[in-house]
Specification:
By secondary structure, the protein is of the alpha/beta class. It has nine helices and seven strands; from the N terminus they run αααββααβαβαααβββ. The chain has helices at about 10-15, 15-40, 45-70, 90-95, 105, 120-135, 155, 165-170, 170-185, and strands at about 75-80, 85-90, 115, 145-150, 195-200, 205-210, 215-220.
């Protein structure tokens, strides 16, 4: 869950922790509740064993269903659109018939960082708007707009946060940056770039170097 499906900030931001809590609570409640419903001390041992077997099967099905949901909602791309990064769940792309391994061509990061190019031609703009209005696919889910982030980092650069303003409101961020700076041998916080990551449950700040290399993240509190 943490290392492969919801690494880094995505465990909290994109629903990994929330999903685990839901799956665990369902399984914890489901077993005792069903046992309470079917249990009868007057039943034969064989009949009780059958009941417990059915309850265990129902719990396993619920667990597998929950795990499948977590897997299908895992973030498979972090797309820059408009003025921030946004996470994209696997199902949003597989429902379009998009092969997820193609994302590896755009970025070697996990999950990949991608730039969604704003259309400049009229026909491309009409295509994007058509997918939004007809198919309810937001721009950051439209894979035909995807480009390598590194090739468009100059367009992304002006959207960075001013780190001094973040620290002024959230002093703890400075301490969160220290391990990132030590790991990458960086001595000045102003040598790094900071961008908003918008996710389903909460937001974070992603940290990059000047060459579009992802360095880490911080959670302003």
């Amino acid at each position: 869950m943490v290392n492969f499906w919801y690494p880094g900030p995505y465990f909290n931001d994109s629903g990994g922790w929330q999903g685990i809590r839901i799956v665990a609570s369902v399984d914890v409640v489901l077993g005792p509740l069903l046992t309470l419903v079917v249990f009868n001390p007057a039943k034969a041992t064989r009949e009780l064993a059958t009941d417990i077997g059915i309850i265990a099967t129902v719990q396993c099905i619920a667990l597998l269903g929950g795990v499948h949901t977590l897997y299908s909602q895992r973030p498979v791309a972090v797309v820059f659109w408009d003025n921030s990064f946004m996470t994209v769940p696997a199902q949003a792309l597989t429902d379009q018939g998009y092969a997820l391994d193609k994302l590896g061509i755009l970025s070697a990061a996990h999950p990949p960082f991608v730039y969604a190019e704003n259309p400049t031609k009229l026909e491309d703009l009409e295509k994007m708007l058509g997918l939004i209005n007809k198919d309810k696919i937001p721009p950051h889910h439209q894979t035909w707009l995807y480009r390598p982030l590194k090739d468009h980092f100059n367009e992304v650069r002006p959207m960075q946060f001013k780190i001094d303003q973040i620290i002024a409101k959230h002093p703890d961020v400075k301490n969160q940056l220290l391990p990132i700076m030590q790991k990458h041998n960086i001595s000045d916080i102003h040598a790094m770039l900071y961008f908003l990551l918008q996710s389903k449950y909460s937001n974070s700040v992603l940290v990059f170097d000047q060459n579009a290399q992802y360095l880490g993240y911080v959670n302003p509190e």
